Amino acid sequence: MSLPYYAKMLKELWKNGVLTQEETSGKDVLLAGLSYFGSGPVSVLQQPFFAAGAKVDYAPLFNDALGVSASLPQLEETVAGKKYDLVVLFEGLEREPHFVKSAEALANCCRMGGRLLLLVQTPDVAEEAWGAERCLETSWAYDLQDVASLFPGFSLLFHVRTNPACLLAAKLEKRREASPLHPKAFSRRLGCRVSERKGLQAGFFHEFHELDRIGTEECTDKCRYRHNYLQKYEFFLRDWKEKPLRLLELGVFKGGSERMWKRYFPRAQVFGVDIDEACRVYAEERIEIRIGDLSQNETLESLKEIRPHIIIDDASHFWSHQLKALFTLFPALPSGGVYILEDLETSLQPQVYSADYHDAPLDAYTAAERITRVAASRTPCTEGPFAEEITAVGLATELVATMLSSCIFIKR
165 falls in which pLDDT band (50, 70, 90)? Predict the structure, then answer.
């Protein structure tokens, strides 16, 4: 959900005396969550606690830019067992698969008589509240009845919801030690309140967990805490797992994806390409890093020499770059090869993303749609720009699979 909703809620809590200097001055306060928005915005949210004289610890949860792969169930380990007078969770329960363990960790970090302030998304999150985060999946949402089931040892001191009712703030006081009592939460997938177990077993891909586990450990934003691509990817890639192969990823960033692919494919040679010279440090055994400008034809042509079996485009997300890479590199795949085009939100949410991304007469998602039509009909594309290139890829495509912000093409 968009950061301004959290900022506005916290501002109102300070203004209306739900959070006070008396309650926080000289007290041990733990703040957790929202790390994916970056250190600057999170520092703004932390500042009132410092100004009130609190002794603040901050526990960033999953953040690929910071290299943090911690989760809420690991919170006690993160803070080395310390107990706090006030624990504030900005956000995080929505993304944790295991919300029961997450709630227990939060409760255990709070001393007896201490306070817990939860800011959680409700089942009623409005479309406008998502902003750029629309492309990132959350698993759970919570209302007061869910909070009560997760924290039976706490008494409710205060609660308020935003208008529209997207965000719930609930302030609790720890009165006794108690385990969650018949805990439930609202499953985004199922659209109803269910137990954790039932929610985790929902959906076609729930049994595919190895790639996501590795991706979470290696801190790639493809994992369940951000884009949630990897369960779906594993379904399509599992037959390659024990084969010798060459995997090419466009875009390296912090190298987390390259390390994930190396671990998942034990016989693979992984190639990462990025324009940033600093990415060379992520080279290691079975990971080769190449530096190049992926907007340039000569760079893309040179990558065809790798003869990759799997290609993942997680580079700039500019329309022209995505299209040029797809049209140039797809023919280099063997029969059965896989091409994954990521981060289609720049195509699907042009009102959110800078116009700099919109640098081609056709966006990448529309091109993917037209490729799908060619693949399904076996007739050439005759409309709009890149018709010849779209036809060539479409006629060479066996299958297209589309998910939230990502598209998979399999070569005939």
Answer: confident
- At 134, phi and psi to the nearest 5? -55, -30
**Residue of 144, 141, 142 lying closest to 172 (CA atoms):** 144
Q: In terms of Cα–Cα distance, which of 92, 86, 90, 57 is closest to 73?
A: 92
36 vs 272: CA distance, rounded Å? 23
Residue among 197, 177, 23 at smallest CA distance from 99: 197
Q: Can you name the residues that pair with 49 across neighbouring β-strands? A: none
- The Cα 350–Cα 348 span in angstroms is 6
Separation of first and last alpha carbons in the chain: 39
Segments in 210-292 forming alpha helices (H): 210-217, 230-237, 256-264
Please report, for residues 69, 91, 220, 402, the alpha-carbon distance to residue 66 in angstroms, rounded to integers and kept in the order given: 9, 17, 11, 29
Determine contact, residues 328/321, Cβ cutoff 8 Å. Answer: no
Beta strands in 197-251 (DSSP E): 245-250
Cis peptide leading into 164, omega within 30 of 0? yes
Q: Which DSSP helix (H) or strand (E) runs through 115?
A: strand 110-121
Global confidence as pTM:
0.94
Residue carrying structure tokens 């959350």: 138
- Strand-pairing partners, residue 155, are 173
- Indicate if the pLDDT at residue 190 is higher than 70: yes
Report whether 111 contacts 85 (CB < 8 A): yes
What is the per-residue pLDDT across 258-273, written as a single tens digit (0 to 9) for each? Answer: 999 999 999 999 999 9
- Taking CA atoms, 262 is separated from 232, 269, 283, in Å, by 18, 7, 11
CA angle at residue 59 from 40 to 157, to 5 degrees?
100
